[in-house]
Amino acid sequence: MNLYAERIGTLRDFMRQNNLDVYYVPTADFHGSEYIDEYFKVRTFLSGFTGSAGTLYVTLTEAGLFTDGRYFIQAEQELTGSGITLYRSGMENVPTPEEKLKDLLADGGTLGFDGRLLSYAFLMQLKESLPDTVTIRHDMPFPDELWSDRPALSARPAFRLAECYAGKSTVDKLSEVREAMKKVHPDAIYKNGASERFHKNTDHTADVYLITSLDEIAWLFNLRGNDVVHNPVVLSYAMVTDTKAFLYLNPSVLDADTKKQLENDGIIIHPYNSIYEDVSKLRACPVLLDAKRVNCALVQALPKECTILDATGPILLAKAIKNETEQKNLVAAHIKDGVAVTKFMYWLKKNIGRQHMTETSAADYLLSLREKQEGFLEPSFETIAAYNANAAMMHYSADEETAAVLHPQGFLLVDSGGQYYEGTTDITRTYVLGDIPYEWKQHYTAVLRGMLALSDAKFLYGCRGINLDILARGPLWQMGLDYRCGTGHGVGYLLNVHEAPNGFRWRIVPERNDSCILEEGMVTTNEPGVYVEGSHGIRIENELLCKKGEKNEYGQYMYFETLTMAPIDLDAVLPEEMTAKEREILNNYHKKVYETLLPYMNEEETKWLREATREI
Amino acid sequence: MNLYAERIGTLRDFMRQNNLDVYYVPTADFHGSEYIDEYFKVRTFLSGFTGSAGTLYVTLTEAGLFTDGRYFIQAEQELTGSGITLYRSGMENVPTPEEKLKDLLADGGTLGFDGRLLSYAFLMQLKESLPDTVTIRHDMPFPDELWSDRPALSARPAFRLAECYAGKSTVDKLSEVREAMKKVHPDAIYKNGASERFHKNTDHTADVYLITSLDEIAWLFNLRGNDVVHNPVVLSYAMVTDTKAFLYLNPSVLDADTKKQLENDGIIIHPYNSIYEDVSKLRACPVLLDAKRVNCALVQALPKECTILDATGPILLAKAIKNETEQKNLVAAHIKDGVAVTKFMYWLKKNIGRQHMTETSAADYLLSLREKQEGFLEPSFETIAAYNANAAMMHYSADEETAAVLHPQGFLLVDSGGQYYEGTTDITRTYVLGDIPYEWKQHYTAVLRGMLALSDAKFLYGCRGINLDILARGPLWQMGLDYRCGTGHGVGYLLNVHEAPNGFRWRIVPERNDSCILEEGMVTTNEPGVYVEGSHGIRIENELLCKKGEKNEYGQYMYFETLTMAPIDLDAVLPEEMTAKEREILNNYHKKVYETLLPYMNEEETKWLREATREI
């Protein structure tokens, strides 16, 4: 019998013992993280499907897995023999997982899941969409005993980020958070677990603030760790009251000195899991939490007498607005990162066709250059090095066995980034390895024109990404092209490379929460692209720091400072398709790149860099 | 005693008789119209303030009037001696009328007003913001007997718009409306006058649809009239059920033939005011209405057993999407309008400095040219002809006494439009009358560049005005300039020159309702500008018809066809500040203007037009 069919069978025994008709397994941790650690990979354990995104349901007679277009082929292969039906999300007539649940439970029944893996907002939606005859059991974690060699919860060492990097002490951050708790503007207020009513124009004071997003906790306590791949965060929860601050984590991750530092800041450290018991003992009081982010098991653990103020907490925005120290550090981080990327470009352009290279060996070489930079910790995400047609797959990921060999022709797209003490970076360059068709140059030039226009935007305070997106996308739209994603995302400071609430996108996608007003100090990527299936992919990405410009009778003007410092390959540029203004923006950028990186280049690299950043 | 102080005194007697503590007088008719007829000018009658926008409140001891920056000086003069306090809306520390009411009624009391002048949404807001101890009397119309020579309700002749103009029969429109009534997606559902709950994902069937916006009624019944200045509408209400359609109006406005036509379409005609009694007799059923538009007296007249489905009705969007006949006619209307405007430009440029001209005499001459066009009915709004510094006032309006004399120097801004059987037009040109400073040319060129960029937009279906606005505004923002208004508004078809739900604007303003997805067939103005107080004003306005372009794997592309056909004064253009692409768009436009208008020009005009539309 297939291993996974067997595991599903064991799960069904558990379901029968607990009278569950449907068991639901999302891909998630207890904190709504973008990437999840090994402990949390129950869906993979049960189904055999190893992709990064997927949702599994199991009934007593059937099972189904939902995943998106990136994984259709892989999922089909991996699910073979498991008896699990593949649902190709996004294809016509394929239900969403929520619709499927509604269908499975149309005549009532009991649905079980681990409530720590799903948000309170999700639970509220479920309650609304499922018939009243359905019982929802959110207290049904997947039993450890059914997964004999289950990895332990990550407990890697944590460390304190010094104030010269963080720019603001935890004590100051806590005091600002407490100030904000006095004036909460909730989207909804819940009592007794039911939506009581919507308040639109009233402020509330929160006595307790529950924080469960790992990057928010890391920011608040100036704490970093290594519990989620690429995200230097610590598995933890936090609770802030008007006088106290509780940090819930595995105490073994703190060395004595770090523990002492935290305690000196007045932080009370409790074991990771004890937050569930602690919140259950709260007196009746108003509790601020973000129902879209806090898991429903934790919310359900609150006494019924507590009033839930559902709102985005103050940390999300405070974290996105980089302070002056962070901004200064980010400039330094991007120079280091730019040095690595530029030396990589030099190496690539010089050696292509002369030595054997593959997508992965190139990526490895780039990593080795980053590792030489002081203060580099790890890549900020898995490097995408994609050759020609592979680059048309936006989320392409090669392994050593399947990696394409690079030849002196076509494009190599490299999207990579680093975690440094001085901040997080994210850069994409598309390199010309040799001959390319004229059309590819046209595409490349249009992508570049869009990237430059957005970088050069000057706009009144109050603008959001939706107002500016067309600057990047316009040149492609004029040609009947497009990229099927946002133009850019917020970036954390030695934190998650994808961060809310800022971004560039033309359609508001509420669940993305990336359309806030652009504030001074926010960092957003600018990465338009062209993706032609079976042919080629182009993306050029710089990071932009939002700054205040002049203020006059019309309002406060804003503009962007480009943080990313690395040449844009001129070998694919058609200068005649650019306006004089666009060439000027590019030339000014290249002049700055040259002057900034010069001190870090050897003689040969300097000579090459002068040419690579030449005026056009 | 001041006449208005006396009138306020008489109102106070009425208030005492009815135990009213506060009486509230907005500037409105029973239909939420943009312009109001003489009958409705109670606020002017009571206060003496004649501006187009203002809100009056009266208590037993004080009275106040709120108006905006356009009218501060005028209101101050007109209110002198009335004892009415002027509230300068928008200035620091000045409350809104709603805040003032809250303040006046903080300790309870009775508020009275004519509920036919305020929307149901406004009433719901009032109820939420005022203390529970406040009694709201919406059944307190201003008594006719206190206004001895009050003008009668307008009852000007109505006429039917032939299908060759309307493009669709009332029977067909009714059947589409009824189809839409089967699938209503309400924003809110009210029962017993109280908000019961929000439904987000459920559809409802409406048995009755109440329509009170005059342009919506005119559109549905292919009926036009003259009851609101510049808006060719008929004072009326309408009620549609799944089998019947009721039209409420003063029967004297219909001649026998028009009445017959309407009856042949199955429309039941009732007297204007009887809708209040008719709705009070409805059986318990779901009633579709737009709470933001339907007056609260009418909603309160519904039996408590009726369920109110608060949603934007289907007519708003259907009316905004011009059908093929309307689109074809609009092209013709804009040629006629363009002929008038172009002949005006020729006359102006030729005669400036040679004959005496003022702002109003120029506007009169332009009107005389429009009147020569077949099918012209009336101006679609009051012409703005503003010379130099006057044009910096966006809503400048001259009268013969105050009108500036035009000299052969500076700018004349003319914003005007016409109502034709073939549609409604709106065009602004800024003319060079002689020498102008170099800076004015820079401003003019920037405005022009923005106007051209927006006209030339190509975008994926799904875009809204907020996505495209920066194309028009960007060149000005780059210079640290801005205009403090939207870039453009929807335009009706032989209806209101300002029409929801389409528009161009960078910030969503919910009450404007002008940020819908741009659909094929929508007509929107494109009118960026520069306004420098005390110096000059520039606006260049074309109307854009939204069209479908190519459809490919990225989606449906959309673009604009420019409807407006009149030269843009090249005498203020700095070609060296434009890109080659911008010059190409302008040259192509001028080529089309020349070719289109040629047949209507005499020899001298043709010679001039060739030069006025020359390539740059």
Notes on the structure:
With 616 residues, chain A is α+β, with helices and mostly antiparallel strands. Helix content of chain A is 32%, strand content 22%. Chain A has an eight-stranded mixed β-sheet. A six-stranded mixed β-sheet of chain A has the order 4-3-2-1-5-6, sandwiched between helices. A four-stranded antiparallel β-sheet of chain A has the order 23-30-29-26. The longest helix of chain A is centred in the middle third of the chain and has 28 residues, at 324-351. The radius of gyration of chain A is 25 Å and the shape is globular. At the A-B interface, strand 23 and helix 16 of A face strand 23 and helix 16 of B.
Q: What would you say about this model in short?
A:
With 616 residues, the first copy, chain A, is an alpha+beta fold. The first copy, chain A, contains 18 helices and 30 strands. At the A-B interface, β23 and α16 of A face β23 and α16 of B.
Shape of chain A: globular
Give the class of chain A from helix and strand content and strand pairing.
alpha+beta
How many strand units of chain A? 30
Compute the number of helices of chain A. 18
Q: Approximately how much beta-strand content do the residues of chain A carry? A: 15-25%
Largest binding interface between chains:
A-B, 32 and 32 residues
Give the strand order of the largest sheet of chain A, numbering strands 1, 2, ... along the chain: 9-8-16-15-10-12-13-14
Q: What is the CA-atom radius of gyration of chain A, in angstroms?
A: 25 Å
**Average pLDDT rating of chain A:** 95
The biggest sheet of chain A, with number of strands, parallel, antiparallel or mixed sense and barrel status, is: 8 strands, mixed
Task: Work out the oligomeric state of the chains in this entry.
Answer: homodimer
Span from first to last CA of chain A?
A: 65 Å
Runs of chain A in which pLDDT lies below 50 for 5 or more consecutive residues are: none
In helices, the fraction of residues of chain A equals 25-40%
